[in-house]
Amino acid sequence: MQFITLNGINLHFQVTGLGDGKPVLVFINSLGTDFRIWREVVAELADQFAIVTYDKRGHGLSDLGEPPYRMADHASDLAALLDHLGVEKAIICGLSIGGQIAQQLYADRPDLISALIFCGTAARIGDSDFWHQRIGNIEANGLEAVADGILERWFTPQFRDPANVKFPGYRTMLVRQPVAGYVGSCAAIAAFDMREKAGQIAVPTLCVVGDQDGATPPEMVKDFAKAIPGARFEIVAGAGHIPCVETPEQLSGLIGDFTAKIAWEQ
Ligand SMILES: O=C(O)CC1=CCC(=O)O1
């Protein structure tokens, strides 16, 4: 477990295998989660990659900074972390808002990126009204009030079975995020629209989505993939919005297969 202050924010991060000469893979977490969502994927891929995970500002053990955030704030934190670690190029994998942070990083610091993996994300998710309603509701009533609806989009009914001990654990992860950090990131999503720029992505790209994703449904992610030249599109069976938790072996397999073709370029 490591911490570093960058951009005036104390960031919580973890690295494995850096300096071993392996290609670097970076994971960016989604709204209302911290980097532990990648734990099983990291375990699957640690032999092949040096891996960086971190808690974006306002989430997990990273500082709040000054919400509301812009997507550029999130991307700047990641760029500063990679610069600090001496990572010159990496495969960037982002889930949901994490995928939007990856898009912003590609716009701002393309030198850092050799390939992109977009998981349950798009150039635009919802509209401004949708996000500002969510912000108002959470500011008034807290994350507890919206948690069950969010979890229905995150996970399949099978995962939400009361007998599955992981489910209440991830519910706890969601409701313990700081409200100001959560809604600060909602504001970044509300303002984010890269639809005009998706066609300019010029690195190998994989778009992947759970077949039961209730937040960014397969059709939305497929349309995003179509807008990116040469992007590969894959659907993971048996997963909602967070395949890294629900189907880590499948997701890791897709990442391994995709990166096998491009890792040598780094
Ligand atoms: O929380 C949700 O509803 C799903 C989601 C949208 C953006 C993100 O990062 O997660």
UniProtKB/TrEMBL annotation:
Any one Gene Ontology molecular-function term assigned to this protein's record: 3-oxoadipate enol-lactonase activity
Listed GO biological process terms: beta-ketoadipate pathway
Tagged with keyword Hydrolase: yes
Name of one Pfam family that matches: Abhydrolase_1
AB hydrolase-1 domain residues: 23-246
Highest taxon, organism lineage: Bacteria
Gene Ontology cellular component annotations, sorted alphabetically: membrane
Keyword tags: Hydrolase
UniProt protein name: 3-oxoadipate enol-lactonase
Organism: Pelagibacterium lentulum
